């Protein structure tokens, strides 16, 4: 009796999860469907399916510029956030030091902060200290929000790291650098990997911080917002679809890489 | 400082205040925290100080020239700005409530029911988080578009009647916000629920507790930090939301970030924009500090 009831509850939870997944993917599917529409104004059911707007979008000069800017920003953010996050995570989770608890709470503050307000505050700050808003400034702005998140992600890995491994390596005569390269770094690699991935993708999709700090350089998300708030342009769905494909490809590649890595690690043992 | 001195055995020479400060600076933890602390100072504290400064400047000035005033704050309190504050905080509260209700069963499933399927399901749930929110909101726009949207198209084909538009209402804005911020509630809640030990739940069940009692007395207290972090994150992000109301809500909802954006761009009144920002910062800040104060981040993130 109890078990049957439990099975029902579990089935319900499964169904509910499926509904939530559907809810998650519905609008993404809508963007992809509409990107195949041939007409200038979107109507559903669509009269003709075509790649017309894919052609137009790929051949437009601005497509390349927008994507390059987004890529530059996301790439730089991921690299710098990894370095900052690595050291930040050691301070967050590895060492016991006076002031750690305060530090943990302080660096989380930018994450729990309305992003649009943060973007504007940074714009004022840049104006005040004389930094021109460019994509480099946007990298800095993204870092303020993303570096703490990467720190958190890596910290989870650091908490699971057994410090005695390092001590054993020292006892066996390894020096500081050898311990770092051959013990600490490999042990934290999965955390660093997901931290970098998070940084890249969050920066790639960010809008509220970019909009105030990129100045004349426009990212894909900024272009989408500007076009959307002035109505429907047939290039919006295609441009949106591109960014969906990009994220999905990166995520799946990362997932397959991680699974393969784990298999290899399991074989070695 | 005093605790360091307390720990030193009385016979040894006492380090001076300067020396113990030097020792504190040389802790490996402090050294490794430096890079991100510098970023925190230059990218967060600095900008906030400037916003605070600007909020006390006279109307439409663009630099610090020695005049200070509280006019902006008086202006905000006497004009009808409280309406957009109410909208923002009301919408954010509603978003948090909806997100919690929707995500709790899913989190429970991920933490306790799905087993080895949890990882792939998690991956599927993560994907939308990494598609820019503007793209996803545009998806809703296409789904709900008047006459030609996908929902309208389907009802017309299948049932033969016209639906009006669902766009440009407060309900749609809420839908958009719940949709965009759901992952931010979902993942911390899952983290919290995965901390609930199975034996405790079983023990409570064996002792005759019903499902609701187990939920209230066992699950909720243990999972609370995760739920709190998720709700807080969702609330703060929702307060700062710009695109949802603009894309789906049309012109009839003016949220606080629109008021701020308006002052900074069209109206070119930075001091007023800054002081509206300060109100938003204060309210969310008090909430964040209060919640953070009650959390043990070490335990939540799985320190052994």
Can you give a write-up of this model?
- The complex is a heterodimer of chains A (269) and B (304).
- Chain A has 269 residues and is an all-alpha fold.
- Helix content of chain A is 79%, strand content 0%.
- Chain A has eleven helices and no strands.
- Chain A has helices at residues 2-34, 52-59, 61-94, 100-108, 115-129, 135-159, 164-171, 176-205, 208-213, 220-229, 235-268.
- In chain A, helix 6 (135-159) packs across helix 8.
- Chain B is built from 15 helices and no strands.
- The mean pLDDT of chain B is 81.
- Chain B is mainly α and 304 residues long.
- Chain B folds into two domains: 1-54, no CATH class; 70-300, MetI-like fold (Orthogonal Bundle).
- The longest helix of chain B is centred in the N-terminal third of the chain and has 32 residues, at 82-113.
- Chains A and B meet through helix 1, helix 3, helix 4, helix 5 and helix 6 of A and helix 3, helix 5, helix 6, helix 7 and helix 8 of B.
């Amino acid at each position: 009796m109890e078990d049957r009831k439990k099975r029902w509850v579990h089935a319900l939870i499964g169904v509910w999860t499926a509904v939530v997944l559907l809810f998650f993917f519905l609008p993404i599917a809508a963007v992809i469907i509409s990107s195949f529409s041939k007409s200038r104004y979107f109507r559903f059911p669509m009269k003709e399916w075509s790649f017309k707007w894919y052609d137009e979008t790929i051949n437009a000069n601005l497509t390349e510029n927008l994507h390059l800017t987004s890529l530059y920003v996301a790439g730089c953010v991921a690299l710098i956030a990894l370095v900052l996050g690595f050291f930040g995570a050691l301070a967050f989770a590895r060492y016991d030091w006076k002031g750690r608890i305060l530090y943990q709470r302080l660096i989380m503050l930018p994450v729990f902060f309305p992003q649009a307000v943060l973007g504007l505050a940074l714009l004022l700050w840049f104006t005040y200290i004389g930094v021109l808003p460019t994509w480099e400034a946007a990298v800095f702005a993204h870092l303020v929000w993303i570096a703490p998140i990467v720190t958190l992600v890596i910290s989870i890995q650091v908490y699971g790291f057994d410090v005695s491994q390092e001590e054993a390596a020292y006892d066996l005569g390894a020096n500081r650098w050898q311990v770092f390269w051959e013990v600490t770094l490999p042990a934290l690699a999965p955390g660093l990997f997901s931290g970098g991935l998070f940084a890249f993708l969050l920066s790639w999709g960010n809008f509220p911080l970019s909009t105030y700090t990129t100045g004349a350089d426009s990212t894909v998300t900024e272009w989408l917002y500007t076009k959307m708030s002035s109505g429907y342009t047939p290039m919006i769905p295609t441009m949106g679809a591109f960014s969906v494909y990009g994220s999905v490809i990166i995520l799946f590649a990362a997932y397959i890489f991680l699974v393969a890595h784990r298999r290899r690690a399991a074989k070695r043992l | 400082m005093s605790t360091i001195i307390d720990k030193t055995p009385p016979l040894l020479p006492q380090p001076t205040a300067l020396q113990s400060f030097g020792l504190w600076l040389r802790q490996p933890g402090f050294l490794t925290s430096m890079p991100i602390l510098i970023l925190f100072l230059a990218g967060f504290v600095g900008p906030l100080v400037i916003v605070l400064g600007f909020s006390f400047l006279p109307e439409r000035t663009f630099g610090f020239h020695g005049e200070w005033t509280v006019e902006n704050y008086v202006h905000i309190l006497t004009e009808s700005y409280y309406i957009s504050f109410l909208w923002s905080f009301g919408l954010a509260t509603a978003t948090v409530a909806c997100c919690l209700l929707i995500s709790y069963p899913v989190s429970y499933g991920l933490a306790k029911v799905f087993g080895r399927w949890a990882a792939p399901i998690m991956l599927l749930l993560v994907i939308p988080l990494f598609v820019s929110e503007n793209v996803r909101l545009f998806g809703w726009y296409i789904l709900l578009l008047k006459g030609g949207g996908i929902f309208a198209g389907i009802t017309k084909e299948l049932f033969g009647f016209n639906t009006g538009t669902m766009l440009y209402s407060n309900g749609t804005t809420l839908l958009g916000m719940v949709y965009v911020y759901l992952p931010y509630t979902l993942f911390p809640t899952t983290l919290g629920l995965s901390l609930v030990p199975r034996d405790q739940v079983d023990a409570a069940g064996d002792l005759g507790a019903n499902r609701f009692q187990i939920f209230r007395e066992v699950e909720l207290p243990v999972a609370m930090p995760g739920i709190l972090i998720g709700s807080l994150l969702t609330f703060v992000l929702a307060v700062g939301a710009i695109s949802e109301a603009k894309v789906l809500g049309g012109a009839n909802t003016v949220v606080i970030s629109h008021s701020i954006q308006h002052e900074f761009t069209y109206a070119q009144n930075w001091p007023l924009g800054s002081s509206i920002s300060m109100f938003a910062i204060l309210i969310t800040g008090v909430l964040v500090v209060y919640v953070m104060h009650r959390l043990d981040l070490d335990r939540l993130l799985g320190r052994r």
